[in-house]
Each structure stands twice: as structure tokens, then as C-alpha cells.
Design brief:
With 418 residues, the protein is of the alpha+beta class. Helix content is 38%, strand content 26%. The longest helix has 21 residues.
Length: 418
Amino acid sequence: MTDRNAAVLSGLAGIRSDLEDLYRDLHRHPELGLREYRTAKKASDALRELGYEVTDGIGGTGVIGVLANGDGPTVMARADMDALPVREQTGLPYASTVTLTGPDGTEQPVMHACGHDVHVTALLGCAQLMTRAKDAWRGTFVALFQPSEENGDGAQAMIDDGLTARAPRPDVVLAQHVLPYPAGYVGTRPGSFLSAADSLRVTVHGRGAHGSMPQAAVDPVVMAAMIVVRLQTIVSRELAAITPAVVTVGSIHAGTGPNVIPDSAVIELNVRTYDDATRSQVLKAIERIVRTESEASGSPKAPEIERTAAFPPTVNDEETTRRVAEAFAAHFGDDAHTIDLQTASEDMSEIPQAFGVPFTYWGIGGIDAELYAEAAKKGTIAQDVPVNHSPAFAPVVQPTLDTGVSAMTVAALAWLGS
């Protein structure tokens, strides 16, 4: 297996410079979800030139490339393409200065603040190596480039547009994400890895009145305040101490002035959980608290609870992850680790679930190793190491790209090279 890895990865040195140029180009030209036209064309053009059978425009801007190479397993490798409405503050010579019109009609700065440019580059590098070393493996390799991960709707958009009928059914789906760990690091985790995320908008209704006459009102501000306090008891009093979950109220809006009791209040909150049972329990508790507090306050109208965004939990298949972890340990040695639970969220798992196949999703580091080590020594990692979605987040080009290409290739060969 190590010999097969070496045979395929021997081509990395010859394409390294081109991949670095591609990465800088993608970073300089970020695109928002479902508008990744340039990025998708880069991917589809590269795949066609490599001899892949390409289908593009899936779910809007999604792309798949299929490389059949004899009898054997089918491996699907996925990368997300979209960027974020963030103004870049990295100071890099290839920093983004792009602005795009947002949904509200205003101009928004756009940046690859989550490293999806790394993911696209790494998968294209892997796709190129697989083409150049076809004698070293057998089966079918499918490269999938997904739109709109940040909005949580890109995977489903591809599925709704017939992905499962337009791509070969894989035996396994693989994906990776660059994270604020030292560059060169690779980390796998069986079972729960990324949290589910649910965003809710709650509207509670009262009866407006003059601020000096509260007896004539049903005050939705007080109602909202009671709900916010009560929500804090879900994690602390309704879940076991060993069950991780987060309930955060990020926004409350009510009223127009200090002397007017309004008719309604809007609460926006976010929930993070790691399994379906906990997710269901927490969401039901939120609904119960909102409805009973409204009733206790004498609300003239039932509250409205709207889920504005939802990401599923990312729960890695244990056997699939063990296989990849063993391959990483053999290839990366001491740089292969077991990674901690992450509070970030992803929609990638919807793709293997649509096919009914196992998957594993791992992390790679992208932070300058010396910077990370110095911060660790001082105990200031949280303060000194930029994280995903930060305007200062910028993975170092190397060894991040080499690690991403190698990790995806080694993982795919754990099936195709056997």
C-alpha cells in the first residue's frame, strides 16, 4: 500500500507550482454560494483536460468528474467551493478585494475565510495525480465540487437536481476541511465530529400600550427576557453533564422607543448538538419553553417559531474512519492524530446519506507551525491563531496544499489501491 501511495504521490512535485498558482487565483477571486460560476468552470475545465467525464451545473453550480479505471470500488471525494461575505484583512499580496451584491441589494466584501479554496485546489491536485498514475490503482474515482456549503443548502441542491442518478453510486464518500491547527497536521475522528446547527427565529406577541400604562399591555419584552433566561436551563438542567450542546441567543429585537410597549419581540438563536436524539430533545425543549412562557404571560397570540437554517451532524462511519486513520498513520507518521470534537457544522453528510453509503470527514492544519507553537507555548492560541471565518484567516500555502492533496489521495487509495 505504501508503494502504491508513493507511485501516485511521486507526481506531486511536478504539479506543486501549478497548484500553488491555482490556490492563489481562487483565493483572489472568491464567490458566494450558488454563484461559484468562475470556480466551477475552473474545476470542470481542469477535469475535462484530465480526461474525466464531467457533468456540471448540478444544483446550480455543482460539478462532478468521473474517472473510470477498470473493475474495483468507487470512491467519491468532495470539496466545497463557496466563500463568505467577509472583508479580508490578511495583508496577503493575493488577498481578495472582491465585492458582490448581496441578497438585500447592498455591496458585500467577499473572502475565502473558511479555506474552501484549499479544498478545491487539493481535490484538483488529487484528481490530477490519479490520472497520471492509473497503473497504480483500479476502480472509479469521482471528484465532486459542491456549491453553497456556507448556506447549508448546496448538498441538497445537488441531490434535488438528480445527483444520485447522474453520478456513479460510490462505495465511500471522503471529505476534508482545513482548520486552525499547525500546517502538516491531519486529524481523523470516528463517530461524532462536527455538530448539527439549527438557527431559529422566534416571534412572541403581546399587546402594545403606553410605557406608563403597563396594566393595559402584555409586554413582549419581558416575555422575551423570561424566555432567554429559561433557555439557559436546557443544557444545564435537561441534558446530562457529559452531553455536549450549546444554545446561544444572538439577537433580540423589540420596540421603537423607551416609552412604548411594543406588540411583539423577535428572538434569534442558534443550537449546536452532536446527535439526532439530543438535537430533537433540545429543539422540543425550546418550543416548550417559548409556548409556555407566552401562555404564562397572557399572550393574545401563539408564538411563531421558524427554523431559518439547519445543518445535520457530521457523524463519521467508524470502520471507514479506521481505514483512513491507518492509511494516514502509515503515510504521515507523527503528523497523523485523532482530532477533537469540532463545533463547526457542515452539510456534506447529506450526499453520502442520499446514496446510502458510509463516509468519513477529517481535518488538516493550515496555520504556520512556528506561529502555532509559539502561541501554544504562551497559552494564547485562542487570541493569536486566526480561526475559520475570521477576516485574518489565511492558511499558509505550504505545507497545507501538499498535505491536502496527499491526504485525499492516500484516503482514496485505501480503497482504490487495495
